[in-house]
Amino acid sequence: MWDETATQTAPVLPPVRHWPALDLHGVEFDPVLDRLMQEGPVTRIKLPNGSGWAWLLTRYDDVRTVTNDPRFSRKLVVDHDVTRLAPHFIPVDGAVGFEDPPDHTRLRRAVAPAFTTRGVERLRDRARGMLDELVEGVLRDGPPADLTERLLGPFPLAVVCELMGVPAPDRPRMHEWTNLILSSAQGAERSQRAKEEMCGYFAELMRGEREGDGDDETVVGLLSTAVAAGELTPSESVGLALLIQIGGEAVTNNTGNMLFILLNRPDLMDRLREDPGVRPRAIEELLRYIPHRSAVGLSRIALEDVTVAGARIRAGEAVYVSYLAANRDPDVFPQPDRIDFDRAPNPHVAFGYGPHFCVGAMLARLESELLVDALAERFPGIRLAVPAQEVRFRKGALIRGPESMPVVWS
Fold first, then answer.
1. In whole angstroms, how large is the CA radius of gyration of the chain?
2. Which of 140, 207, 314, 343 sits 20 to 30 Å CA-CA off 191?
3. Cβ neighbourhood burial of 396 (10 Å; 0-12, 13-18, 19+)
4. CA distance linking residue 234 with residue 408, whole number of Å
5. Distance (Å, rounded) from C-alpha 49 to C-alpha 95?
6. Residue 268: beta bridge partners?
7. Quick check: 16 and 44 in contact, CB under 8 A?
């Protein structure tokens, strides 16, 4: 697991540790990341793909410092073959995840109205209605049922497509494309083809929106308006649409992890039923605790020499931060490996920090809240239909989550 042949040209640097792609079961905390955290707040890592090594920061304060520091660039990552988890790395032109301010700010501004409190609340009744319809179908068919197939998959897909303005007949294709883009299981070529197909779809949808009378409150409508006004290029609007669509389905895995915990901890589920007022805090604590992804996300490139946690990061070197590790920092979260619904304060960074804070955080919270409410209120005595170790989790996925979750109820 550990690469002990790290370069000797700079003996003052920490050794380069190899971080393999692990298909972990359930909500197990990555053992490699745990080891790296124990080694210190700053280490060096080599992931399965890309070239070279990168710095890794795991302490809460350092993670927030770097993610909010303009001396670390996302845009430069496009021009560097940075060591990474995914075998495929072909960012879409103008993708907001690979932009720095002020372009990053300009791109986010175009879709901001859809993600304000008003924009998200506009969806609440519609989202609740879509979930109620799905739940009624599950209850009508009776146990057993696969929560992933019946609720965790279709509900977030329906909500993000509603937000985007994707017509209902096209939503299954969106789901298939997203799964291919987020998985390495079928290879880089198939993943790239799915990305191109989704981009082509959004380009055509926006073209039709500009030529007709679309809903300017949907993301596609907002992006089309921004292109028509000269505020975005067509390729920028497509890249942003792709990122939001894919991110919207991340709720499937994240909420799946939350429900997996609740189904394995009847004490926690009982508390949610007995005290509905604790549910918002419970969701925040589960967001802090669950593994949102495998390994780490996107890197940054230092624009100049910067000292962080006592390490001298040179201009041009790649840096990763771990939000998962930051959320387990014992200096910020006492007893971090314990789920505590009364934890306060709980300043987790599950949705990131700084300019790249997840634009859909409020929407993700809404969906998680509705799903937890449904599980607690509509399914008395719900429990796993198989032993926990037999619940299948996705293989080769960049975002961890249950592939299926069979349940029964009273």
1. 21
2. 207
3. middle
4. 48
5. 21
6. none
7. yes
Say which residues have a Cβ less than 8 Å from residue 190's Cβ, sequence separation at least 6: 180
Tokens 């197939």, residue?
149
Concatenate the DSSP letters of all residues of 184-229 into one string: STT-HHHHHHHHHHHHHHHHHHHHHHHHTT--TTSHHHHHHHHHHT
Count the Cβ atoms, other than its own, within 10 Å of residue 208.
Answer: 12
d(C-alpha 7, C-alpha 303), whole Å: 23
pLDDT at 6 exceeding the cut of 50: no
pTM score of the predicted model: 0.91
Per-position b or e across 272-310, b if 16+ CB within 10 A of its CB: beeeeeebebbbbbbbbbbbbbbbbbbbbbbbeebebbe
Q: How far apart are the first and last CA of the chain?
A: 45
Residue 170, judged by CB atoms within 10 A of its CB (0-12, 13-18, 19+), counts as exposed
**Side chain identity at residue 287, one-letter code:** L
* DSSP class per residue in 8-19: SS-TTSPPEEE-
CA 103 from centroid of its chain's CA atoms: 22
Here the tokens at position 232 are: 């975005």
